[in-house]
Amino acid sequence: MKTKLSTLSAVSALMMLNCGCSGNSNSIGTNDPEREYVILVHGGAGEMGGLAKDPEKSAAYYTALDSALVIGAEILDKGGNGTDAVRAVIRYFEGNPLFNAGVGATISAEGYFELDAAIMEGKDLSAGAVAGVRHIKNPIEAAYAVKTKTAHVMLSGEGAERFAESEGLEMVDDNTYFATPKTMKWVDEFKKASKKNGTVGCVVLDKNGNLTAGTSTGGMFKKRWGRIGDCPVIGAGTYADNESCAVSCTGHGEYFIRHSVAFNLCARYKFLKEDIKTASEHIIFNELNREAGNGGLIAVDKYGNFAMPFNCSGMYRGYLYKEKATGTVKKGYGIDSTMIEK
């Protein structure tokens, strides 16, 4: 394994300097559908780029990102579809206390853990989401059940929990199941100095050319009044359309909602004919307020081109794709602008 600065990242950085922007971007493109499948993951974005310089802590995140990619690839290699892969990857993240989703969720002002999740399939624009749930072990599974078992798109709070329980999904009796020692040690002074935003996501282009996007989050620290961010809002934090892209976002949700970031990217790609790199970077570096609306996204288009821009110092992210002609698998992951590529 070797660490190197992506050439495309360096070019993007130079372009952003020339236009007065600041941020980071990783994108890999191809003009032909030469990839059997593509998987992208993210685990949150914010001012944690310095973590990449801590060998012990960064290794834990690199291992987790690699594990998530391998989980998705194994499903696709065995004949599973993109939705199967997205659900499995996000279930893994929801069970990993390193990330703010499921176990490891952040705490609300009232002292509860409230989780959101969404999933969308590009082949028919079907989507499902849950918001503000406190007792569903894997919110991504509840979101999928909403998509497949109801006529609705989003269920929230106690209603979402009653539905999940009726569908036989695994529940937890004690809301503190989602807490970790790190969560309990957080203090206001530390969080005020941090702009770290926690969400996990996965987007997939599968062998059949179908796009799927999924996102899950443990919410914003000390959120109040039943606040819901962009994650479960279809078109804001999550979107997929086979005619354009699959997108999962992470960052300050209020700004991602206002700019309809996920749908906005797909619309620019579809109607303005912008490539995925141009469209995603325009939104992340130009439309969002980089001081308050910090964050990033992962996106893959219908040809297997992908982008992972972020306008802050770090975003946990990774990619894996398999080439059709050779069967070669290529992957990479990173925290700051440097990508570890294999």
The gist of it:
32% of the residues lie in helices and 25% in strands.
Please report the distance between the alpha carbons of the first and last residues: 6 Å
Count every helix, treating DSSP H or I runs of 4 or more residues as helices.
Answer: 10
**Which CATH top level class fits?**
Alpha Beta
Task: Look at the structure and give the mean pLDDT.
Answer: 86
Strand order of the largest sheet: 1-15-14-13-3-7-8-4-5-6
CATH superfamily: (Glycosyl)asparaginase
CATH topology: Glutamine Phosphoribosylpyrophosphate, subunit 1, domain 1
H-E order: EHEEHHEEHEHHHEEEEHHHEEEEE
In terms of structural class, how would the helical and strand content be classed?
Answer: alpha+beta
**Model regions low in confidence, pLDDT < 50 over at least 5 residues:** 1-22, 186-196
Beta-strand proportion: 15-25%
Q: Summarize the amount of helix as a percent range.
A: 25-40%
Total strand count, please?
15
Computed CA radius of gyration, to the nearest angstrom: 18 Å
Query: How does the overall form come out from the CA principal axes?
Result: globular
Named at the architecture level, the CATH assignment is: 4-Layer Sandwich
Q: How many domain regions? A: 1
Sheet with most strands: 10 strands, mixed
